[in-house]
Amino acid sequence: MGWYPLGILEVAKSFLLTALLFTGPLFESIAIHGRWKDWTRGQPIRESLASWIGWRNYVVGPVTEEILFRSLLVPLHLLTPLSSIRVVFFTPLYFGIAHVHHFYEFVLTHPHTPIAPSIIRSLIQFSYTTLFGWYATFVFIRTGNVAAVTLAHTFCNWAGLPRVWGRVEPRIAVGGPTIRGKEDSGIKLNREAKGSWAWSAAYYVLLVAGAVGFQQSLWILTESPRALAKVG
To answer: In the list 18, 77, 119, 177, which could disulfide-bond 152, CB 3.0-4.6 Å?
Structure first.
């Protein structure tokens, strides 16, 4: 359910809503690290799909998971006496639990890591996958469009978790310009420090602004005549 009609408008609005949460990281990639030229040539997409792991993370994984956890499970739960709000918060638990196997994989690949950090890592992963599940289920019920949540899933897998602390600095190319003397060096480092703080301030302002915009646009950008049920 949710595949036809495609609903290009719902897909575009849902993608815009998701991207609002990543306003800061997108600004960091495009402006601070200067990758806007790469984006115009589609290089990040080619880089992401250059390996089987990329296809798994950004194509096969999102498509199969959204078919199972949204397109199949959500409509079945909407046929039960559960309210739509409970469906939004209950069904993503399946999605979160389905990622617990990463704990076993991590233990196998990191045999010298103590068990406590491994458990904490898995709990954190369970938490953010469940959070995404809540969001994806909400969007799916509101739009009735599984392609919209699949694209959002792909984008979130690609973007990862936004940075919420630390200084944001431009990437410095290897073999940079030659420093001629101590005075030049001091001026250069001072300018870089000031620039770094300016970039950091801009990043965190945009991160907060994006979060506020996401909150204010959540209901507006998910409104659709193809909604599966009324939420709330």
So the answer is: 18
The SS3 of residue 8 is helix
Lowest mean pLDDT among 17-31, 109-123, 179-193: 179-193
d(CA 185, CA 85): 59
The one-letter code for the residue type at 145 is N
Structure tokens of 90? 């209950």
pLDDT category of residue 195 using cuts at 50, 70 and 90: low
Burial letters 104-136, b for 16+ CB under 10 A, else e: eebeeeeeeeeeeebeeebeebbeebbebbbbb
Instruction: Residue 214: count other Cβ atoms within 10 Å of its Cβ.
Output: 19
Query: Distance of alpha carbon 202 from its chain centroid, rounded?
Result: 20
Question: For residue 139, is pLDDT > 60?
Answer: yes
Question: Exposed, middle or buried by CB within 10 Å (0-12, 13-18, 19+), for 204?
Answer: middle
This prediction's pTM: 0.81
Q: Which residues contact 123 (CB under 8 A, 6 or more apart)?
A: none
Q: 218: closest CA among 22, 71, 21, 74? A: 21
42-91: pLDDT as tens digits:
787 888 888 888 898 899 999 999 999 999 999 999 999 999 999 999 99
Active site residues: 65, 99
Residue whose tokens read 């200084």? 167
